[in-house]
Amino acid sequence: MRVEMAGGICFHARLPLHPRIIQPHPPRFRNGIRCSKTKETPQILKFVVSGATEILRLFSSFNKNELNEVVPEQKYETAATCLDDVMIILKSDYDNAYFVTGNFTSGIYAEDCIFEDPTIRFSGRDLYSRNLKLLVPFFDHPSISLQGITKVLSGETESVKATWKLRTYLKLPWRPLISVDGTTVYDLDNQFRIVKHVESWSVSPLEAIGQIFTPSSSRSI
């Protein structure tokens, strides 16, 4: 077969005499949701998560006083002067279950810090704080346990890597259980401020979202 490319370049390719037909594998399903072999997040799922976050944010504007009672305002004066300081502060935040309480040391984050997980990406320390406040009222008997925390040196970039386990029920009529093991990498600048906060999960984004729609009666911690 002769194939002509843009710009007048061409090449010849010989086709096999007996091409093999590859049969597609049947799709797998978990919790009623089609699973993929890769953990790449479908674009539509990112839109759904972003839309749900905006709806919660609009709802919170009518319940601002209640949210402030659940999560107190954060203080900004704490700062780190070395990598060990960052690790000590982060460990303290995990001891305070910062992800499920909203109580974290915001002073070690740059104002324009990038926050990313498999379903969403945005920048802004204050926006992250507000997003935590949106989630906290929906948690029922939450816990997040730190499994390990280590230094990561890659070229000129210094980072901290934390592994954790998240378990919580949600205050929905079917009381779903969210159970995720994850890793967060905190990239630092030369002033030892966190400029990037990236989560990865042990389950795919579809599986994680699927947990929200699974009654807890069919699952256990």
Compact overview of the structure:
By secondary structure, this protein is of the alpha+beta class. It contains 6 helices and 10 strands; from the N terminus they run ββββααααββαββββα. Residues 2-25, 29-38, 59-64 and 66-71 have low confidence and may be disordered.
Topology diagram in text:
Elements: E1 2-4, E2 10-12, E3 28-30, E4 33-35, H1 43-60, H2 64-70, H3 83-95, H4 98-101, E5 109-117, E6 120-123, H5 125-135, E7 139-154, E8 157-170, E9 177-188, E10 194-201, H6 205-212
Please tally the helical runs, counting DSSP H or I stretches of 4 or more residues.
6
Whole-number average pLDDT?
77
SS class: alpha+beta
What fraction, in percent, of the residue positions are helical? 25-40%
Enumerate the spans where pLDDT stays under 50 for 5 or more consecutive residues.
2-25, 29-38, 59-64, 66-71
Provide the succession of SSEs: EEEEHHHHEEHEEEEH
Total beta strands: 10
- Overall geometric form: elongated
Per DSSP, what share of the residues sits in E-state strands of 2 or more residues? 25-35%
